[in-house]
From TrEMBL:
Domain Arginosuccinate synthase C-terminal as annotated: residue spans: 198-417
Keywords of this entry: Amino-acid biosynthesis, Arginine biosynthesis, ATP-binding, Cytoplasm, Ligase, Nucleotide-binding, Phosphoprotein, Urea cycle
NCBIfam families per UniProt: argG, PRK00509.1
Catalyzed chemical reaction(s): L-citrulline + L-aspartate + ATP = 2-(N(omega)-L-arginino)succinate + AMP + diphosphate + H(+)
Subcellular localization: Cytoplasm, Cytosol
MF GO annotations: argininosuccinate synthase activity; ATP binding
GO cellular component, one term: cytosol
Gene Ontology biological process terms, A to Z: argininosuccinate metabolic process; L-arginine biosynthetic process; urea cycle
PANTHER family in UniProt: ARGININOSUCCINATE SYNTHASE
The name this protein goes by in its record: Argininosuccinate synthase
Amino acid sequence: MRAFIERKPLEPTQQPPLTCIIMSKGTVVLAYSGGLDTSCILVWLKEEGYDVITYLANIGQVEDFDAAKKKAESLGAKKVFIEDLRAEFVEEFIWPSVQASAIYEDRYLLGTSVARPCIARRQIQIARQEGAQYVSHGATGKGNDQIRFELTCYALYPEIIAPWRIPEFYNRFVGRKDLMEYAEKNGIPVPVTPKAPWSMDANLMHISYESGILENPKSHAPAGLYLMTKSPEDAPNSPDVLEIEFKKGVPIKVTHVKEGKSKDTPLDIFSYLNEMGGRHGVGRIDIVENRFIGMKSRGIYETPGGTILYHAHLDIETFTMDREVRRIKQGLGVKFAEMLYNGFWYSPECEFVRHCIDKSQERVEGKVQLSVFKGQVYILGRESPKSLYNEDLVSMDVQGDYDPCDASGFIKINAVRFVSFISYFWYVTARLE
């Protein structure tokens, strides 16, 4: 911290007074949630001599934004930005993930991962707009979010303050108990108490739950944990049948078949699918995953709308896409999911992969009918003007243009390959013995 001394005219017998004027270290735009960590970080940054602008992104979480703004102002924020990013979150981040069939380690639909580049991008735009020298976040030093925020910052605006990796901060706040004591001492109101035994992150795509009692991988999730979905046991006893229309791999309309209700804007489509999926308990998973920083973690997720779209898109894609193109696209989808999980959204390689996946979706067009019922998604049928399915060709009752001799040649070629593989297998086994 810097200071300078202001000198005033003196009387002959007067001792020289010293007036210290504290100079700010600069302005920080803090990604703020209003929770325990970021509220404490806001006050700590001010203690350290920074001017703090707080930024809260509305990406579909249930939040009292007016209360969050008042809280930030009461804690000394210079300015407070509350930005509604829901529409761009769906169109620019969730939709590319749907096109990619992005799923991490076969189960996780990446709801937290896909939100971070959306949040961080707007944070950096505000930093530039306000002439701030730094951006900051409250992600812990053991989680993935620190990587996701900071790789975005390094790509777009590389001056970062990461409190959970600053020794003065993490040595002072060893655990949540220290944060709670600091909050109490500094008059910081927080909704979480030591009796609330897990942390939660919510957005339009999903809600995630981790830490606390959930860190024991054997512990069952408490019944009252889930907020976005009903228990399948309590779900309606009759299914809801939906029709989802796709164009270039992106949903453009959803219709409730029985009620005739339809939605045709991205935000409305996704919100309605969340409503339908949540009503039937769709999209709950409890997993142990591999974090990018080198540890396994237990996470519980509920992703109702995303789960419905994953199944529907997968169905229309296989119906309309060439087999060999899809084989390559599947590999790109796995790579994209890994890059998204690890925070590389703004990397050149991720941009290239997204471009390739987008190209693969040009023919992915049509309608899928499905039912949601008791925690499950059931595909009922599909149609497309760009279908590669030939009913006459595949029919067992119609000869069509199919020549059985073609199958004979195919069988012979693959039989030779199979025999060669078996011979090689026995050769290797014999050598090993």
